[in-house]
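Hey everyone, long-time lurker, first post.

I ran two proteins through the pipeline my lab uses and got sequence/structure pairs for each. Pasting them in order. The first:
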Amino acid sequence: MGVSSQPSTLRLAVSEGVLSPQLATLLALQRAEEPETPILATEVRQEDLIQGLEDGHYDLGIAISGPTSLTLDSQLLWRDELAAAVPRRSPLLAHAAVSLTELLRYPMIQSYPRVCEALSQQIEALLAGDQTRVSCTSGSFELMALLVAAGYGVGIASRTRILQARDWGIVMRPLAEGAYWIGTSLLRPTSASRAAPAISRFARRARAVV
């Protein structure tokens, strides 16, 4: 079923890995300013989010920035710097910033989906095909943080989320090579841009959240 011109409920798909204080602020703003248009939020995999938007199952999506379909409009909302997540007693804490070479001396807990293509390519080049140095692949930040805290390896995630999880037993260190960024984007079908004023109002509120 396609998107109606005046949806009574906005069906919002949220991809794994984008839950953030900014998203909470956006949803609170929507509820305060337009309570007559409630949000039905569903957490889905990134690929299911894109397919669901194309098929008309969702009105809007909030996802990790990256390649999308030509049938979708993408609007960058927020971005955060990527950093290293290391255990609380790691020798890496002797460094104010950690190089990828130093980081990859420890088992890597890789994230999925790839949150930064440029960083992923550098890591793969340093690994040189040696997958024995990859401890496991994590489908969520929570699993990655748990494994890092337990000493199974190190990971890379958004700086903000690592800092929020410090009570779990993980510590953030900047990447010495410089800033790599993860973006969060608002996605909507191109056909919905003019069809539903409620969708446009939600997009305007999203742009106002910093």
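...and the second, right after it:
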Amino acid sequence: MAQHGDKEARRREILDAGRAVLRSGGLAGMQMREVARRASVALGTLYTYFATKESLYAALYSEAVEQFFLDMEPLLEDRAVDPEELFVAFANGQRTMYAEYGRELDLFTMLGSKSGVDQQVLERLIQATTRMTSAFRKQLADRHIDNPDLALVVLWSTATGLAEHFTGPRHAFHGLSWDETVRYAASVLTNNALSSATPDSSQQ
């Protein structure tokens, strides 16, 4: 338990409690009173840290995005990584993220003026997402992909779409597995992207 006056430790306990409540009942079932009970704080104290449950949710989401980036960073910085394996790793991470967060309230919903998310928390979430997209774009640009911005949008959208598809009920209407679908998408997308790459004149 956090020592009296240790605000960072108290915040961590609230986040841990919030994550546990979120995992058991989703955003709709994430009651602030239950979060306060699990964190052993008064409800009023909880609201001094997070004014709304959306702000608490966004803080948890931003931490998950930051951890996702740290997990992906070695691959994103490896210029010799197999592009198919990079996409598969990213898609797997997106599926995990989407199952816990994306189906409830995504980044772009939070950008709305009525989202109820604290601005500081929102900025942290945006920064975490920007770090990921920037590193991914650099990986594409370093491979001399024609129009890396467009390639990034297509790759990111495909991974997110597959994550949404397989964490919802629609995948029950076909017999395809997540692994074979993601592998197929990785093969098609990366082969097409690499076929449009501009030759590196320094290696000619």
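Reply from user beta_strand_b:
Welcome! Quick read of the second one: The first helix runs from residue 7 to 25. The chain has a mean pLDDT of 86.
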